[in-house]
Amino acid sequence: MWNTTAAMAEFLYRGGGFQNILAGFGRPVVQHWPGVAFLRGDAATAKYATRHITRLAPEANPVDVVGKIEIESKPGLHSAAVGVDPRTWEVVRFELWEEHPGEEGVYEVLHFSEPELAKITAG
Known about the structure:
five-stranded antiparallel β-sheet, 5 strands, alpha+beta, globular
């Protein structure tokens, strides 16, 4: 997650670190979503990640859907972010956890950089 599109560009194609991922794993598809909500939780570290995707119903008004998005603070939550993919009209919720959240489809976080975490705001 980047606080600005300039920071994302710096990381991806101006020498800000993505070259290490390229060297180790090849060039992956990089998806991006305009952020609509963010919450910093109480956990000190992020060791696990979850992703939940909800497709908007064809008749749903995106203004109404986004206006109702809230992130609930939970014990062990490091941070959570919600974005909307306007290409597919999907709401994507990412949550980072200090301990395994006990559900299926959990990703292990191998590296987490957070130099500007305090600057990220909700949508």
